[in-house]
User: What shape does this take?
Amino acid sequence: MLAKLKQFFESPNQTLSAEEQAHHLNLAAASLLLEVVMADETMSDEEAKILPELLTTTLGLSVNDVDALIKDATVSQSNSTSLFEFTQAINDSFDIEQKQQLILAMWRLAYADGHLCQYEDQMIRRTSELLYLRHSELIQMRNLAIETQQQS
Assistant: This one.
């Protein structure tokens, strides 16, 4: 799986089926979410609970697809050397609203355990920059995540 992902990033002109391309994009997005989860080096029970929900709502995946994607993304995320390999694929295919929804999901994950770790904050801010989102969009998504957390 990791070899296929690397091949996708290294040869973007290669013809992939729509299904393969969608899987690679979902894998990149899921890997970014896992970057937030693992920023503090632990996955809390709250984060483990909300991650599948965020993947289904943010990426429109079925519950069955989510478990396999999390496993693939865990391998991909642990072997990655930078965020660029994930954000490049997302920049090529996601529109602004999809990028905002991904950042919102990242903020929701960061606040899932009740507090924001400085490393989670840095990860989300760096990802937002790499996705070419404005600072105001980053803050808007953060505030929305905080409101959602307070309503739960």
Summary: Helices lie at 2-10, 18-37, 45-59, 63-79, 84-93, 96-111, 118-130, 135-151. The longest helix spans residues 18-37. The mean pLDDT is 88.
